[in-house]
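Researcher: Structure for this, please.
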Amino acid sequence: GIPVNDKRILRICRKIGVQSSIKWSPKSCTKADRNPAHIAKNLLHREFHAGKPNEKWLTDVTEFKYYVGIEVHKVYLSAILDLCDRRIVSYKISNHNDNALVMDTFDQAVKIEPDAHPLFHSDRGFQYTSQAFYLRLKKHHMKQSMSRVAHCIDNGPMEGFWGILKREMYYGKCFTSREELIQSIQNYIEYYNNRRLQRKLHIMTPMAFHELTLQVA
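Model: Predicted structure, token format:
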């Protein structure tokens, strides 16, 4: 409850040796389709601002590892992020990086936000270039946008969320069960949406900023 400048906090942290987790080089799990059914233009054009909720959605898939003895196992997290309030609209976790994972994430999002018709941006992963996914977007009156090849920054805020999640929850830890890893992911997304303050949101949480924006609208 004491008002204090963040630069003072930084000086104190440096003095006592408190520092953030190391930022690791990103390793994408994107798998491009050799014969994509549908390629969309980059309509987003790195315009990472939205004036209202459900105006622009970003999506992607990332992977996590856990260990059972010496065996390495993976789970995949698919999520949709709203550019206005930076909240995670929906997410799904699966053992497989496949079409079903992406479809289920999208279906959950439109169930939560049935009246949303955002610009929908992704990379060129095989799930997003499929005809089935294109028809899903068309059914819900959404325009599709895709990053250019080898331009991860075209989906920058989504990549940024993966970095935040992994630095604060995943890197430096060794998960030894699927259940433990999934629970940690779920707990973190709940924390991120409802309790993690963001400077870009005027020191508010994504959900608090979301509610405020809806009231103003």
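Researcher: Any notable elements?
Model: The first helix runs from residue 6 to 16. The CA atoms of residues 123 and 151 lie 9 Å apart.
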